[in-house]
Specification:
4-stranded mixed sheet; alpha/beta; metal-binding; Vesicle-fusing ATPase; 6 strands; cytoplasm; globular
Length: 121
Amino acid sequence: MIVTNTPTQDLTLTNLAFCSASDLHKFAVSGYSNLFLGLIGDSFVFYVVAHYSVHSGHIALNSIQRRCVKVSTAEYISVSRFFPPDNFNLAVLTLELDFIKRGSRSEQIDITNQTGVIYAF
């Protein structure tokens, strides 16, 4: 898929990946309703949501996600559905929080929203 920017400024704080509505079914996890997970760059798993402004064949990531995956906008990256293995138990979770804009310490993080994504499993 081709990497693009997150659709709107407020969505950059969600840590979600965005695709077109026509591509969303490619990330559906069987056995779960409304759970769409993408393995991006064969390294990172992100919760995927459809957004009307993302074109088919594109994946929208925020700047921190792009930095982690080591990709720039307009580059092609492998993206596939993440299938949690049977009896998938998370042994270790590393959660890193950082400011989107360095020097701006007035940002607020909606941890309730992020916890919902973590508890989706």
